[in-house]
Known about the structure:
Elements: H1 5-8, H2 21-32, E1 38-43, H3 50-61, E2 67-70, H4 78-87, E3 101-105, H5 113-122, E4 130-136, H6 152-155, E5 159-162, H7 169-182, H8 190-199, H9 204-212
Parallel strand pairs: 1-4, 1-5, 2-3, 3-4
Helix pairs in contact: 7-8, 7-9
Amino acid sequence: METVLYEKYRPKDFEHVLGQDKAISQIKRLLVQGWGGRAWWIAGASGTGKTTLARIIAGVGADNYYITEIDSADLLTSAKLDEISETMHYYGGLGDGKSGRAWIINEAHGLRRAAIRRLLGLLEPIPQHVCFIFTTTKVAEANLFEDHEDAGPLLSRCHRIELTNQGLSKVFAEHCRQIATTENLNGKPMQSYIKLAANYKNNCQMMLQSIELGQMLAV
């Protein structure tokens, strides 16, 4: 089974993440001080690299086998939280020098009141071999959670990283055109890719999905 373009070309390290220099500098500054015992809150528009950065951060201290990604906060059930509470006290590691465990919780704005209150206990303190990474498209603190739970207590336990969606049109256009050329899906000039970026509000994932459909081939 072939991998979709967005996953095939997803950056595996900070150096290949596009357009988020400020956020990456902040992340690297914190990582110098240590990987474990932290919770991260990464916010930004769709397609700007939240999950990509979350996976890269997780991979700094944990092997892929010990990185758990929950694609929707709705799936963070009581049973799942019980499982996290139990396993977070054990070290990971498969002989590659990494002994950490990481949990990535996407669409964190969907967290429910009961899950949030349980997480507050899990995040204080966090074992030094563990990190939690939350991602969300909602940046504002007010009315962050869908059931109107106060976001302050949870956010105060996280390092907050905000991704930009500004100035990315040309960067993403060049990136996607290069991929389209590599995949023999390019037949249009650069301006068409800039227009594609504008149409999808700099959502790189949607741009690549469009390219897969052949929308950048010559008519």
